[in-house]
Amino acid sequence: MNNDDDLRQLFADATSEIRPHGTLDDIRTRTKKVDPMARRWFLPSLAAAAATALVIGGAFWMTRGTDDTSSTNIATSPSDTPTKDLNALPEVALDVPVYFVGDIARGQRLFLDTVRVTTCDAPDCRLLAAVSAAVNGGSTDPDYTSPWPKDRAGASMVVNSDGDQILIDFEAGPNGEDLLTRKPSAMSVAAAELAIQQLVYTAQAAHGEKLPVRFQFDHADTPTLLGVATAEPLAAGSADDLLAPVQITNVVDGATVPAGKLTVKGMAAAFEANVSWEILVGGDAVIDSGFATAAECCTLSPYEFTTNIPLEGPGTYTLVVHDNDESGEGRPVNRDSKEIVVE
Amino acid sequence: MNTTAVASSEEPAIDAARTDADTALTELYAGHYARLVRLAVLLVREQGLAEDVVQDAFVAMHQRWQRIDQGTAPAYLAKSVVNRSRSALRHRSVVARNRPEPPPDAAPADTEVLASAHRAAVLDGLAALPTRQREVLVMRYYLDYSEREIANALGISQGAVKSHASRGAAALRQTLQEQR
User: Fold this and answer.
1) What is the residue-wise DSSP string for A287-314?
2) Which domain, by its residues, includes B175?
3) Residue range B10-20: average pLDDT?
4) What residues contact B67, with CB distance under 8 A and at least 6 apart?
């Protein structure tokens, strides 16, 4: 028996007695009730939960999954304008900036992504849509996740700005429960701080202005959210400490791009400002590669390069940008990757 | 494009796409669910967590069905399970530090003891390896991926795959030897 067979056998034996639980229906329950657009707002488990309303300024949306309108929330914005029916609001498809959490060589950081939402065309609508996507996970990139607890079934939020600060107000659960002010035991302190900063970065990017972000729970100031001090409005923390050192920012995962030249833009904080890039086909072979230089060394700054795709016709390609292991000791590198579909 | 967030279900294009995704989900579940759960058990050790990881991967695939290369869906699922297992472990290690050790598993029937202990030893040995070594070994010997396929799936060089595989295999053999 050669070594390979010995390990194959070991692994096959080790799992031979496992009788998986979980049925197709369990999975279907989480997929069938979710509308493609609504999915951008809520995790499937949330969408399938009781009636949920998003409240913003003077308007509200009901998500799908229920026709029960009894739990409509009333906005608590300063203007306190009356709620309007959803159907009366003009809606548009918009791309909003959203930060998500992803892995870097050591630990986790924030990555800037772009999420397509359907919402009313007003600044506070974009703000709410972006923050909701950050909390509920709306990225097409499987490497990006939301760090927020998934068991906030029924929770909704109010997000708006009065021009001096941005308000993010999480409401209590349907039975008044508080799932958010304390740090969940499954979350590290660092992860909780990153989750709070994720919303600060997202809200500021979506609003287009770096206003302080005031967090509330159930319409009142709260000393902590996820265990992080939120008594005072928060400013964004240092990008070099919080953002991933290599990011692709102008290509979303799963994007369809025309054949020809593709200009890739992103941010990198890399040794000597150098990043490497590759285009893989079929997840299997490098068909093009090169280097790019960020504007500044060692601090997060923009890079840009242009690649010719495809060399091998329409299909799915993987774009990878990464920094390099300067030690030569096989240390992990920081990277970002996007699947792109060439038509 | 929906003009309202209370989306109409009378969107033929969306309905057709969803039917496709639903059919694919049924087929992929039948063909791959059990094997993917076993893959995840090799990676995360605990069956309940493994099932969560695999179900999440199926839900995410269903969500993205129109945007993925559907011909390679099984490979996509496997890669997604490997990535999600890594995140789940990181998450769990934080939980583990914050709670007391669980009681040992209940002892199985006598005739099963030896086989069961051996299976547990393999899973424990894998769990004790660094993440990358475990991933490479499992992809190589459970999924039967080539070194190049592993390198691409994990975004590391083939040289790194080789070295993780040989170090991981040596460490695992050593652990199993010591337990005999």
Assistant:
1) EEEEEEE-SSSSS-EEEEEEEEE-SS-S
2) 112-180
3) 65
4) A140, A254, A339, A341
Residue entry with tokens 């930060």: A99
Whether residues B123 and B77 fall in one domain: no
- Separation of alpha carbons A90 and A122, rounded Å: 10
Rounded CA-CA distance A83/A68 in Å is: 17
Contacts of A335 in chain B (CB under 8 A): 155
Radius of gyration of chain A (CA): 22
Rounded to the nearest 10°, the torsion over CA B59, B64, B69, B70 is 50
pLDDT at B102 exceeding the cut of 50: no
Inter-CA distances, A316 with A57, A254, B57, B70, B144, Å: 41, 9, 20, 10, 23
Between chain A and chain B, how many beta carbons pairs sit less than 8 Å apart? 172
pLDDT of residue A44: 25
Class of domain A246-342: mainly beta
Tell me the nearest-neighbour CA distance from B154 into chain A, angstroms. Answer: 10
Q: For residue B64, give the chain A residue with the closest CA.
A: A140
Q: How far apart are CA A198 and CA A144, in angstroms?
A: 12
Quickly tell me which residue has 């990277």 as its tokens: A335
**What's the rounded mean pLDDT across residues A297-313?**
82
Our count of domains for chain B comes to: 2
Angle between helices A189-207 and A123-136 (to 10 degrees): 160
